[in-house]
Amino acid sequence: MILRTTTAALVTLMLATFSACAPPAPDEEGDPSEDTSQSDDDALSGTEKIAALANDNVGNTACGENSLGGKGFKSSCTGNGGQPEYWCSDFARWTWEQAGADVDGLTAAAGSFYCYGEEHGTLSSTPHVGDAVVYNYQGNCWADHVALVTKVNPDGSIITVSGNWGGQSGSQAHFSSTSSVKINQPAYSGEVGSYSNVMGNTISGFISPAGLPKDAEPTGPEGGKAFLYPNQQHLVHSDGAGNIRHHWWDANENKVFTDTWGTGTAGEPVSFVHGTSQHVFARGTDGSLKHWFWDPANGPRNDVWAPAGSIAGDPAAIVIDDYEDVWAVDQGGKLQHWFWGPDTNGVKHDTWGQGVVGRPSVFVTKDGQQHAFARGTGGTLEHFWWTPGGGISHDTWGTGLAGDPAAITFGDFQAVWAVDGAGNLQHWYWGPNTNGVQHDTWGAGVVGRPSVFVTGNGEQHAFVRGKNGTVEHWWWAAGAGISHDVWGNGISKDPTAITIGAQQHLWALDAAGHAQHWFWDPASNSIKHDDWGK
């Protein structure tokens, strides 16, 4: 990676022996009796093998026999001048290596995992089973501890397994020879920037292993105006004068920064993160499809995906594996689709349908189907989808729309929300046991396009702008039905909402053009608010 210098790498190697991981508090040990290992490792995916190996070694020590019959983990027994060294990183990289991951660049330093994530594009703010989680990262590949994620709970909390945990106070050799592999529990928040009492440290980021066969996982949600980047929350929006404003809150600085990403735009932008790159798409004032992107190695860049006169509505965008896809409606009411990938030799294009207006909403199901919902010229809810090997299909889900739809997939279900001409929030959904598309009404007194998400415990949430500028919130929970509350007031643009761990976050512009931010904190069960500026 360009940003890492030879000097920084040498410093990291020199310091590795002395601070591969900070000694954890002895009264915060996991209980080996809670082992959740799986015995049939050959049937597991790469990341599941990491979790199984980690659990299989609970109770093992720096110089003892590991679960595969070897001695210790990498240089855990001898790295400190022939004596045991702090070995949390040794354990994590040994586990990754045995599961088949690429461990090139990893050292006995815990912070080497963070730099590995930057180099391989696998640094994230979202935990996954098999990830390394780095704590108290201080820059220059330097951190206090690294552990392995073995479970991610529906509420966003995590369980981890650590090497070099629970040793006795004393010299490095004494602590490391008396510590062992332990489960860190109870489960604790997986939010980057949060302090864990279980770990006695603050989470800096999650790093997925490179080189493993890709697990069959559903693609993430479609892009919006808010996105996460390690230690940062980002928001992009139009300032109403054709400029794309960009705000981001940095957890390390605990402050909001603002800059301008682009000019000459109309409507609202859409954004997503692809690896270590941040991407923004917007409609140009000339009807072109403009694209801005940034990565830490190359800085800001931009290009044009479609020439002037190509689109008339705001774009929708999503990352699909290694591909980037964008949909938008053109001046003739046709739904157009552009996509780019490592083997496409540039941006490609096709047409999906016609008779639509506004901004589409898109998602990808876990079997690879790509779905796009758009408002028909007569207020219908039009649905187009592409099946690998089967081409593009179409049907109509409903009628009466006055605003653009918001769609999402979860499990085997597909759901869409939109506001009708009377200001009611309508909801359509389909699943394998619904006997076709079903419909219900969630609320009233709203305008514009909703913003929706589903939490890890299956709750469905929809945020919409009230007719008087309020932030209206409806949610459905199994066994409880639909509930409603109001988060705030004074907004003049449609909201955008996301989940961050167990927290729920929402942004919307007020009449003065300020980006207002609300978030629900489960720890205090309260809604908090701040102003992010213009």
What does this protein structure show overall?
The protein is mostly beta strands and 534 residues long. The protein has a domain at 6-207: endopeptidase domain like (from Nostoc punctiforme) (endopeptidase fold (from Nostoc punctiforme)), CATH 3.90.1720. It has helices spanning 6-19, 46-56, 88-98, 112-120, 172-178; strands at residues 123-124, 132-135, 145-152, 157-165, 180-189, 195-196, 201-207, 226-229, 232-238, 244-250, 255-262, 265-274, 277-284, 289-295, 299-306, 316-320, 323-329, 335-340, 348-353, 356-364, 370-376, 381-387, 391-398, 406-410, 413-419, 425-430, 438-443, 446-454, 460-466, 471-477, 481-488, 496-500, 503-509, 515-521, 526-531. The strands form eight sheets. Strands 1, 2, 3, 4, 5, 6 and 7 form a seven-stranded antiparallel beta sheet that branches. A four-stranded antiparallel beta sheet has the order 8-9-10-11, with no helix packed on it. The radius of gyration is 25 Å and the shape is elongated. It starts with 5 loop residues before the first helix and ends with a strand.
